[in-house]
Amino acid sequence: MNTRSSFLEIETHDRELEYELMGGPVSLQEGITHGLPDGSKLAWQPGPLRKAHGLAKVLHFVLVYGRDVSAGVLGSYFYEKLKGRATVLRLDREEVQIEKGEITRIITEHIEQND
User: Fold this and answer.
1) Domain covering 3-113 in this structure, CATH number
2) Residue 107's Cα: distance from chain center in Å?
3) Who contacts 9 (Cβ-Cβ below 8 Å, separation ≥6)?
């Protein structure tokens, strides 16, 4: 399987989101991965700490997917996890509105660019 990867950044005030996206591990460490419904994998990445009061936490992940990935399944998955919980989503530094159709569209574009 020919794999590709995209860098995800998610800004949130929800302290549980990071763990939920990774399948609920007891702790997070570099290199931990979580399988997604379509067979893709989400790999957690440590990021700089932002300790100022009121600032959103920035979560860092690498999304690893194959050529035959279902953009619709991935878009739905991320939308359901992020709606009302994340303030910003970036895919390879491109800010994406947290709407199912928009997330799916951007994932589709990234898959097509990598073909």
Assistant:
1) 3.30.70
2) 11
3) 58, 59, 60, 61, 88, 89, 90, 93
Contact present, 91 and 8 (Cβ < 8 Å): yes
* Phi, psi values for residue 30, rounded to 5°: -55, 135
Give the Cα-Cα-Cα angle 30, 37, 78 (nearest 5 degrees): 70
- Token pair of 28, please? 């997070």
- Of 63, 71, 72, 70, nearest in space to 43 by CA: 63
Query: Using CA atoms, how far apart are residues 35 and 25, in angstroms rounded to an integer?
Result: 13
3-state SS class at 93: coil
pLDDT tens track for 10-35: 999 998 898 889 887 767 777 788 88
Confidence band for 49, pLDDT divided at 50, 70 and 90 = low
